[in-house]
What does this fold into?
Amino acid sequence: MLEQLTGRLTEVKQRIDSAVDRGGHDQRVGIVAVTKGHGPEAVMAAWEAGLHDVGENRIQEALVKMEAVEQPVRWHLIGHLQRNKVKWLGRFHMLHALDSERLADSVNAWAEGAGTIVDALVQVNVSGEGTKGGFAPEGIEREAERLRGLRGIRVRGVMTMAPYDAEEATLRRVFAGAREVRGRLLDAGHPAEELSMGMSSDYEVAVEEGATCVRLGTVLFGAREP
Ligand SMILES: *Cc1c(COP(=O)(O)O)cnc(C)c1O
It folds into this structure.
């Protein structure tokens, strides 16, 4: 697994570098290795290949792997979090899907009770698809203000997902929209430098549009179990 991953990673890094050049945003791009659907050995291989940030979209699956993996990887929760599971955030480096006011309030209440601060990305639904979670870009100023009152959450940036299989023009519009939202969070005083966008099928366009973090599964580890 490691040998194959190393080869794929070399190509992905080259593609990211080229995309940064084309896009002109001059940003650094981190890779979150998405290991959902694969076993703990994928996490260990990621670590060996130099990928120290790992993404999982379900708490239960992540907890099982955390038990099995000794390397001090940084775990990212990239999927929707149910409010009755916020206590598990203590195990994660970053929450990528802060997607509703109710979730924000629950995360904040837990963090204040635990005496900690959760680093989180605000998920925005730029495309307006009903199946996607997240805040609408239109309401973001008000939300940015509200989030400033939640001392248990540190807003580190924005996360978005583009429609699956969309045309390039649509991808660009969605990713540029997320970049604009990040600007408004920064204007509101949040330390919101991160722009988490881009998956296996669209990361090059995302990087061209300024992504600082791409979440890659298939392109690194191959097809996964559903
Ligand atoms: C699964 C997943 C990814 C990675 O998807 P690939 O297409 O396999 O790269 C990225 N982000 C989120 C939120 C995911 O759930």
Residues 34, 36, 57, 78-79, 199-201, 215-219 surround pyridoxal-5'-phosphate (CB under 6 Å).
